[in-house]
Amino acid sequence: MVFNKIVDINQIKEFETRVMNKVLNSNMIVLLNNEAAKKKLNLEIFVQHTNTNLKSYCSHLVINVFDEMGARVYENDEPNCCIMLCEVICFVRNGHIIGVDLCGDKVFNKSLALLINKIEKYNLR
Q1: Which among 22, 49, 13, 14 has a CA at the least distance from the CA of 109?
Q2: The whole model's pTM is what?
Q3: How large is the angle between the packed helices 106-121 and 27-38, nearest 10 degrees?
Q4: What residue ranges of the chain have pLDDT lower than 50?
């Protein structure tokens, strides 16, 4: 989705909220939640605004994974890397704000499938 040049910040936030709600109600997130519950992991899902200036606006959907104690969960094969997902929702290109419908985005769905796979393979310590 490309917003008009004259855009209100509230329109962008409404779009981000709609995208996040669609993602939260998707089958992939249900599967992600189920896999996390099996491993006794908790998910934190939110929209992060990297830049709120409309000339260089950028926002992301972030999924963080925590253990029962509230500590970040690290990858088994990369102990310095935590298991998480961060995907762009809105960004600026050629003076227009572009919004990405993540549920229909192949890259996001592939990344989400990878996150599910990492949680499935996560070894409780």
Answers
A1: 22
A2: 0.88
A3: 10
A4: none
